[in-house]
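ok so I'm stuck.
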Amino acid sequence: MTQAAPLSFDLNQEMLDMLGQRLDIQRPVSKLVEVLAGKRGAEAEEAARGIFEDYGREWAGLTLQLGERHSDRTYQVLKEVVDRTGSFGFALIPQRFVEIAYLSTQQIRSLPIVENNNRRLAYEMRDCRIFEAVKERCGEAVANLMTCRQACLALVRSIYESLGLAAAIEMEASLPQDGCCRFAATRA
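replied:
not stuck anymore, here's the structure
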């Protein structure tokens, strides 16, 4: 009798490393530096918004693609539960992809989830590498504009849209004012 391979309930580390390399946060920050050199005020803010929204959509797309390809037992069980019950999918399935996204690009061991139920998913980021890179390269005043939030908003919005889940996505707190960024997806 052959032994079955052990089931993994953990995220695939190679997948996280690959995402981190392909989604280097210095890329959008370097584009921001270029944009700020030639623009001021609202024009600069609008250009920055586009840079970070594009990064967020790319971040979501690669995360979803590789997250599906590198399925783990936890994700398989989640999908089975959702298929059998018809519920729990609103927050649990997207949470997996949001966690993959942040674990691959941030220096964290877990994503602080502050709310997860059938109506809402909310999480926080306290030490954001994107925010810190903007602050380092562009200064604190530019970082405090929080144009980088567009990446996180686009990430979560794209994940929910790709999974066919209607949600209102919003930022409820920001690093400069509250000591953390808090993002929430509320069932529409």
